[in-house]
Amino acid sequence: MKPLLFNICLLITVCFNTSLLAQELVAEKGSFGVDTKNKIIVWHITDLDAIKTANKNGNTIKFNKNYKLKETTIQSLSYKNSSVVSNEENYKLYITKLPLVHLTVDTSKMSNVFKLPFYFTFFNDKNYIKSTGGVRYRGNLSLSFPKKSFDLEFWKDSITRVQKDIKFANLRSDDDWILDGLFNEPLRLRSFVATNLWNEIHKPYYLKKEPKAKSTFRVKFVELFQNNTYYGIYQLSESVDRKQLKLKKKEKNIIKGELFKANSYKGGPDFTKSPEKYDDKTIFWNGWATRYPSDINEFSWKNLAEFSNLVVHGSDEDFVKNIENKFQLSNAIDYYLFVNLLKTTDNLGKNYYLGKYDKNEPYFFIPWDLDGSFGVVIDGLTTLETDGVLQNGLLKRLIETNPNGYKEKVKKRWTELRAKEFSNEALFSNINKIYNRFTDEKIYEREQLVWKNKLNETSNEDHYKFLEKWLTERLIYLDNQFNKL
What we know:
The protein has helices spanning 3-23, 48-54, 190-201, 242-245, 302-313, 316-326, 329-342, 393-401, 406-419, 424-440, 443-450, 460-483, and strands at residues 24-26, 32-35, 40-44, 60-62, 66-69, 83-87, 89-96, 100-104, 116-124, 127-137, 150-155, 166-167, 173-174, 176-180, 219-226, 229-237, 258-262, 284-285, 288-292, 352-356, 363-367. It is α+β, with helices and mostly antiparallel strands.
């Protein structure tokens, strides 16, 4: 072949191959999920404009295979609209800014008792995390839901099962995590809003001593694929433990920090019963479960039993005289107002933790499991009933005995919160931010493609209007109640 002809052919070949390459966009490993059952692809992209700039004329995207955009190009990709792509069959392609999680596990052997080995990936803004670990179902009533929630524990490997800490975005570094399916809450936002609200209004009283202490867990929305099937929106949650709260560790035989979970309705967590006897060899007592110290033969119920006895059986005189040494009253006030704002009926005799920072320090409340709130009860049913003041034995007695002007402090704190974090404007701003995003970015749309149930037979708009009406009326009722104190 003559040199000139050879060069021309070479130039044509290079240009042709370059053109082909420019039309194929390759998705990063871990950034997407392909659901062959529901014909859905979800692809995490943080900067969609950069993708469009680099692929101006392309119409093919490589996920597990090459998929061609039908009747459109990469330039038309949007967070606010789905696209149709094809590889023999048509799929709906959604672009998401939410982190993408994959769980791979043998679900035929899954239970809420033992953790099975699983493989896990997490992708967020080019941060790609891979790990093995153990997973089990979590919850009580939620075990009956088709969309399961999960307890995760990360391991260095599946043989030794040595625990491994993983850090997700702005959350902590730890080996224990929760993925909450939020199935009983139609708008999938109540728990998230409530959890962030508590973190906003309440800080640990010992924060100067422990600057990294948190007042409860923190949360982040993700989208989940389980065994390559799209499972929708999940709430990734930290755990409540000694590490999160920065409680003082036990020193030799001296118990310093304490942590108990309100585990069941047996009279202890709602402060209506306080038996004299307890057994330091068992993890359970009077509806409580000890969480720290938690090693065998380290359980100690003495302090909690004495406190419970003061609340349940102590005279008014003893209660007023000693309660401020036994319980952190600014925490009691915030928790009282918080659970009443949300009307979380399941968070006064269960679904909370009781902590103690150090020896001879007072106890305090830590909220937990906040999905049954804002007019939704724990089983997922909605109720427009907005009246009634929630309390348990402790909170009721504080109001009745009024130690050191407690009622006036409650009233003052309510007024402060209503001017800021509990104002209609602030509350609806937090709710609307999520609701509008989930609507505009078609997150609700793809969630409801895979989860059809009694909760989403009603439109999202109707669910939102219910929440709006419920919260507005609840605030009017509580303003009247607390201003009368």
